[in-house]
Amino acid sequence: MYQCVECNVCKQMYDITTNSQKKNCCNKCYQKEYYKEYYQKNKEKLRQQQKEWHKNNKEKILRSKMIKTWKRRGLICENYDQVYQLWLDSTHCDKCGCQYTDKNVKSMDHCHTTGKFRAIICNRCNMNMLDQTKPINNTSGHKNISYHKVRHQYTYEKKYYGKQIGSKRFKTLSDALCFKYIMLLRIRAGHYN
Questions:
Q1: Which pLDDT value is given to residue 182?
Q2: DSSP string computed for 103-168
Q3: 24, 78, 116, 186: least buried by Cβ within 10 Å?
Q4: Are 84 and 66 spatial neighbours (Cβ–Cβ below 8 Å)?
């Protein structure tokens, strides 16, 4: 025989035969109350367990963060574990062959239109590569340099850690590229830190 009773907490109807713990509230409400009480009693113990778990699983956490970041930025591949292993094993740039340093870090190179993984390259090569997904008004093909069709001039705009550090107009692409590389040298020298 089934008896339906209204829960005193959430005012929902529930079957009294499925609730063996308390007679005045449903299982969901009982579990919420139980876990609140359990957490209050064992707060320090649970925090200690969390700290130990984080210490023991640092590599696992780092791996999941890296893969989430790559997915958010548009990287699409069949086997993320294989790409992550390549990332860990990579010590030199696949394009120029230089060794990674604190200033010239690893970058994940992928096609911005298809999301396909290409290579693991240094930050310098990544910044100097032709941009595959240029904005509509950018016909120059270079990052941070756009061509204004009406004015017939190139514009260089660069943000570094959220601050606008360079915005200048040029008549030719070569002048804009020279200015871009000068700005990159200034950034590497630490002028904008």
A1: 82
A2: SS-EEEEE-TTT-BEEEEEEHHHHHHSBPSS--TT--S-BTTEEEETTTTEEEEEEEETTEEEEEE
A3: 78
A4: yes
Q: What gap in Å lies between CA 83 and CA 102, rounded to an integer?
A: 21
Look at the block and give the residue holding tokens 């060794």. Answer: 99
Return d(Cα 178, Cα 8) in angstroms, integer. 73
Classify domain 58-129 by CATH number: 3.40.1800
* In contact, 136 and 117? CB cutoff 8 Å: no
CA dihedral 142, 148, 159, 125 (to 10 degrees): 0
Give residue limits of the domains in the chain. Answer: 4-56, 58-129, 130-193
DSSP 92: B
The C-alpha atoms of residue 54 and residue 113 are separated, in whole angstroms, by: 36
Q: Other CB atoms closer than 10 Å to residue 129's CB: what's the count?
A: 16
For a pLDDT cut of 70, what percent of the chain falls above it? Answer: 79
The pTM assigned to this predicted structure is 0.46
Neighbour-count burial for 58-84, b at 16+ CB within 10 Å, e otherwise: eeeeebeebbeebeeeebeeeebeebb
